[in-house]
Design a protein that fits this description.
Blueprint (H helix, E strand, L loop, with lengths): L2 H7 L15 H7 L3 E6 L2 E6 L9 E8 L5 E9 L3 H19 L3 E2 L5 E6 L5 E6 L2 E5 L2 E12 L3
Antiparallel strand pairs: 1-2, 2-3, 3-4, 4-9, 5-6, 6-7, 7-9, 8-9
Helix pairs in contact: 1-3
């Protein structure tokens, strides 16, 4: 895996950057190595400038927590101007989730969907949308990972 992709994804554990769904705000704070920009009782907002990226590149990460104080959504936007690097990161992230959860399916709006089990053994799904996005003059890759329990 490319070092810049590795900085985006983090280590090989967890859903993203070593962090698993269903953890508390405090557990995310202990694990996340970016700079904390903002926080509330239901979200944390970080920024990171990974080593190996150009000086104008940055990673904007938000973690969202449910009413029980458990992580259930992660959004990340990696702003970088190198289209080739964006494509490399997209490929590496897709391969990471496929190795972790198996083959994905696509839903009706084009999201990749992987089934998984929560830390408590409950059945759930991870939905991932990766797209090259030009937003306010920035070019980069956007990731959204959402955890929810499948209804039986």
């Amino acid at each position: 895996m490319d070092p810049v992709s590795q900085a985006f994804i983090g280590d090989r554990s967890g859903v993203f950057r070593g962090i698993e769904f269903d953890v508390s705000i405090e557990e995310v704070k202990e694990a996340e190595y970016g700079e904390l920009l903002d926080e509330d009782n239901d979200f944390l907002h970080y920024i990171d400038r990974p080593e190996g990226a150009s000086t104008n590149d940055f990673l904007d990460i938000q973690y969202f927590f449910n009413g029980a104080g458990e992580l259930d959504m992660i959004t990340a936007f990696y702003s970088l101007n190198n289209l080739e690097m964006i494509q490399t990161i997209e490929k590496d992230v897709y391969e990471y989730f496929t190795r972790k959860y198996g083959r994905s399916q696509s839903d009706e709006i084009g999201w990749h969907v992987w089934e998984y089990n929560t830390r408590r053994g409950q059945a759930g799904v991870v939905e991932l949308s990766m797209k090259v996005n030009v937003e306010d003059g920035f070019r980069g890759i956007e990731l959204e990972a959402v955890k929810y329990i499948k209804l039986q």
